[in-house]
Amino acid sequence: MPRDIPIGNGRLLVAFDGDYAIRDLYFPHVGQENHLSGYACRLGVWVAGRFSWVGPEWKLELGYEPDTLVTSVSLYHQELQLLLGCRDAVDFHENIFLREITVENLAAESREIRLFFNLDFNIYGNSVGDTAAYDPQTGAVVHYKGARYFLVNGFAGEGSGLASFAVGQKGQAGREGTFRDAEDGELSGNPIAQGSVDSVIGVSLTLPATSQGQAYFWLAAGQNWAEVRSLDGLVKHHGPGRLLSRTADYWHLWANKETPPLKWLPEKVAGLYHRSLLVLRTQIDWQGGILAGNDSDVIMFNRDTYSYVWPRDGALVAHALSLAGYPELAQNFFRFIADLIDKEGYLLHKYNPDGTLASSWHPWYHEGHPQLPIQEDSTALVVWALWHHFVLYRNIEFIKPLYRSFIKRAADFMCGYRDAETGLPAPSYDLWEERRGILGFTVGAVFGGLTAAALFCEIFGERDLAEHYRLEAAAIRDAASAHLWREELNRFCRMVYRNNDGELKVDPTCDASLWGLFAFGLYSAGDDRIRATMGALKEKLWVRTEVGGLARYENDDYHRADPKVPGNPWFICTLWLADYLIEGGVSPKELDEAISLLTWVADHALPSGVLAEQVHPLTGRPLSISPLTWSHATFIASIHRALRRSAQEMACPACGASPLTYMRRDDWIERLYSHTCDSIYGICKI
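The structure corresponding to this sequence follows.
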């Protein structure tokens, strides 16, 4: 089930599913230490002798307040005659989850309404040795194990604290869990339990007919009892409503600090731009790691998650953040990843948010021979993104310590890691992590990385080394033209590889990742060979159903939903087609088509604005992980491509003035050139 509304502050991440249950809670790193492991923390209601957990029998609308990381959730139950309006947030500064519930009694009589919050922790990712205890000093329940403490508290109306609580064991000796204790509207008050435990806290308010009242719950996360007690005191001192308001104000300011001229785009597309920035922010750890996605439901697919830092994904996300005007987040990632490079100059498969090496399925030893278990594009794209970041921000003091330790080391590796016969980069794993060979995407990325390294060397005065890197990049381009372009296909192939006899073989599969041949500068998007290739990809990979969208590659079996289509439509692949139309188009028609693809993305987002990895080709519902950070980052980058192209299209043919001016730092400003031009296509006065 997707994570419809993630909220966080870089240390504490809370993610809800479509039933408004909290399913993932990460602390103190985004993506590391999921203290729920997918188990549900639910909201329950008792009124007039009836009880209901919020879920399928309720009418739910899950979203966010505009341009914030504060949720806006509507919960309606016709039979209970109740309407709940919920606002949730993680405080932008403190590790506190906050929930405000506006309860509307729709009945014609006064009623007592009891609200229950069930906490089903698996601290450190397992339920062995947890403790849940009532703390009389704070009037709260505390779950703890080791150095992880979670305090939960609340009040309703003018009340001063909880109306009831209970803790108990779950999943053993026939005990389903303490949540069952709430279903008669009364809690036992059991003060402590250890082992595999859960808890429920309750508040109560009495509302006259057709009136409303408010209740609050909060959760404080810390590393000891004193810390969570202190955070609880902070909530009581300031009031949870005030903390919610300041958090909403902070994120609204953050999301709107830059002002790209989004009014030139469809309203739905413009709205998803800011939402994508905010969703990206929830997936970034305070130490700089950019997580691919945090949705524990994918564990059921392969007993692992996407909660890791892939250097490639991180580089492309950092690039989008640089374009959007958030250099600090990009710089934190670059520092984080630069510390992880091997002394030989390569990055490995993926890393944990704390910088340790993560799980992998890429072997160091294959068919009797040692090999590097790398995806070379990951190393190359960090250098490429770093150069584009520098072009925008000119932050020399930031780049200086990375120049020798990361940029040159990575470039030297890329120069040396080559296939002796072809001159192409040596075999490595593809971006989809499914096959090993010499991929078109990887070749494009390595060219972009070496070109970026050459430019860095030029500005740092090492011109001989810059020339060396340029020549190596040029040799790779020549090799790509010789071996990846296939006359018999009239397009580029996905990859070449060596069979067990060492013979060079061609994989002709149409693969959307051939976008990488122009995206990083290997070829121009206007090159006839790129035009032929992208035309073939659109013909072969477009999903010809009412849903539409572009699949990854022919006969893609990953989460495949219908054998009649080439694969499920992916957001990033559809956006890559839009990028080609923007970069390679020769008329406004292609730009219009690209914007229609941006609209397709917005149309297939969840109502909250969250983008999954892929969607079902027949229903359009999200598939695989949701949110996928890469999807949101690609959308942001494609928006900036579209705005740059729009500025060119709107330029006055006489003087070049445009109502969209692209500044060096990628700040977009709207300005009418009335001093030079009567109208955008008017007669120039100069």
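The longest helix spans residues 396-416.
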